């Protein structure tokens, strides 16, 4: 088994330190202990990584799809072989329970496998000509150097969801992982190296100065595509930085997901979906439910069963058996969650459960339920990113559609009903890129992931996920 705890960045096949020798500690959020330190890279290293990717692109783009697919399948096999090791590393630096981390590793690996297969399906077209003296064709070519800026909450899967289609298309990549979770990115890059992926095709820049590094990676003229997952505020900044060189930009940004339970729903199934869609990764996912809209006829039944299910969740270190809820990523996240709950209660919300730090540790927040929440409260308009469920009542379909859509975000939404006609009405009316219908887990490599409105642009995964890494070239051939 490879040693996957690495403490250097990767540029052009070399594992290097920062030019100025600076390092930044990587902290285990469960224990507060330092795992290791990684280079605190800056502008010069970022420029070197872009140049390495650009130089590698000249050869990588000319390789066959079959060749690239073969290397990617070797990478996939190595990820699966090291799944236990990767999952433990993921839990150690990010905090999520081991069972979730292991699931993420396999989920992340699925994108490498999927896009290895898709590499051989990048088809052009022959177009019927408008006159007898011409022939029209299209071909698809790799866009070039790609910047992949990934978040801390899914430090394996967010990399493979971007790097997989990039490599399959023939692009090269510079990865800037989340500042709190660089170790998974380095481990994944090491496995790619062992799989035989050439030097410079994948580069990893670690840093505690994201604005400095991000500015280079989003504005450098040799970068032709930026793929970012993170906050809406930073996504808007990236759009501005990429504008001067007219880069192609894919953004997977914030969310404010509604979870709607109608009076004809299977309540037990809805509760199961509610718990997993809200409390997975301690609520730290962009598709986590923020707002629960429960029909007044089933409100009491749902709340009773939901509260008992949440009470049964176990808080603890993600490496300990039986843990359901791990820590929040850092103290800043704790402060935000605590302030949101306090303000909501001051504004009239009813605390049903939780609402305080856990005795387990300073970065553990108890699973929380707030009832009697209204849209006049600040918490109704925030992306919570913590284990907080806010619960609203509603009376009719038209009203809940209006309230669910009353947000600048449009990433994911969930609803539960047994009425098939209502399924179609809701599916067409809800302004979201992803819908979970009688289902609380929605992510898969075979379906498109992405949002509308201020939740972003572009899609990741599925047959559509490779499109943003390709340019379509039109050939007009006179004969």
TrEMBL record:
GO terms for molecular function: succinate-semialdehyde dehydrogenase (NAD+) activity. Residues 15-474 form the Aldehyde dehydrogenase domain. It is an enzyme of class 1 (oxidoreductase). The active site is at residue 252. The keyword Oxidoreductase applies. The keyword Oxidoreductase applies. Its EC number is 1.2.1.16. PROSITE patterns: ALDEHYDE_DEHYDR_CYS (PS00070), ALDEHYDE_DEHYDR_GLU (PS00687). One of its GO terms (biological process) is gamma-aminobutyric acid catabolic process. It comes from the Bacteria. Keywords: Oxidoreductase. SUPFAM superfamilies: ALDH-like (SSF53720). Belongs to the aldehyde dehydrogenase family. PANTHER family: SUCCINATE-SEMIALDEHYDE DEHYDROGENASE, MITOCHONDRIAL. This is Succinate-semialdehyde dehydrogenase. It comes from Vibrio furnissii. The gene is gabD.
């Amino acid at each position: 088994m490879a040693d996957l705890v690495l403490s250097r960045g990767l540029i052009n096949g070399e594992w290097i330190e920062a030019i100025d020798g600076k390092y930044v500690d990587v902290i285990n959020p469960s224990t507060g202990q330092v795992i290791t330190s990684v280079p605190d890279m800056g502008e010069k290293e970022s420029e070197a990584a872009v140049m390495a990717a650009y130089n590698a692109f000249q050869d990588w783009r000319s390789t066959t799809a079959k060749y690239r697919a073969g290397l990617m399948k070797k990478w996939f096999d190595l990820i699966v072989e090291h799944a236990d090791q990767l999952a433990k590393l993921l839990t150690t630096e990010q905090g999520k329970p081991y069972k979730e981390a292991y699931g993420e590793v396999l989920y992340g690996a699925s994108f490498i496998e999927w896009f290895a297969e898709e590499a051989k399906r990048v088809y052009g077209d022959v177009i019927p000509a408008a006159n007898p003296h011409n022939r029209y064709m299209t071909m698809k070519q790799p866009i070039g150097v790609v910047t992949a800026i990934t978040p801390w909450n899914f430090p394996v899967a967010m990399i493979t969801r971007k790097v997989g289609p990039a490599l399959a298309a023939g692009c090269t990549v510079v990865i800037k992982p989340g500042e709190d979770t660089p170790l998974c990115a380095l481990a994944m890059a090491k496995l790619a190296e062992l799989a035989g992926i050439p030097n410079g095709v994948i580069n990893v820049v670690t840093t505690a100065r994201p604005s400095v590094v991000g500015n280079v990676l989003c504005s450098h003229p040799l970068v032709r595509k930026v793929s970012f997952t993170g906050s809406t505020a930073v996504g808007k900044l990236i759009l501005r930085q990429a504008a001067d060189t007219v880069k192609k930009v894919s953004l997977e940004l914030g969310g404010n997901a509604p979870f709607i339970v109608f009076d004809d729903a299977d309540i037990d199934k809805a509760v199961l979906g509610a718990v997993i869609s809200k409390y997975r990764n301690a609520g730290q996912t962009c598709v986590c439910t923020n707002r629960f809209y429960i029909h007044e006829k089933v409100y009491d039944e749902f709340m009773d069963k939901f509260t008992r299910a949440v009470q049964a969740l176990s808080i603890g270190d993600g490496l300990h058996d039986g843990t359901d809820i791990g820590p929040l990523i850092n103290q800043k996240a704790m402060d935000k969650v605590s302030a949101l709950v306090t303000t909501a209660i001051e504004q009239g919300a009813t605390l049903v459960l939780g609402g305080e730090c856990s005795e387990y540790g300073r970065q553990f927040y108890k699973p929380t339920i707030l009832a009697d929440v209204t849209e006049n409260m600040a918490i109704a308009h925030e992306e919570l990113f913590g284990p907080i469920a806010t619960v609203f009542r509603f009376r009719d379909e038209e009203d809940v559609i209006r309230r669910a859509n009353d947000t600048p975000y449009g990433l994911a939404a969930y609803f539960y009903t047994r009425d098939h006609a209502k399924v179609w009405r809701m599916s067409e009316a809800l302004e979201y890129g992803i819908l979970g219908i009688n289902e609380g887990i929605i992510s898969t490599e075979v379906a498109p992931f992405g949002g509308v409105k201020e939740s972003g642009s572009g899609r990741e995964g599925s047959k559509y996920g490779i499109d943003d890494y390709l340019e379509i070239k039109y050939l007009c051939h006179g004969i």
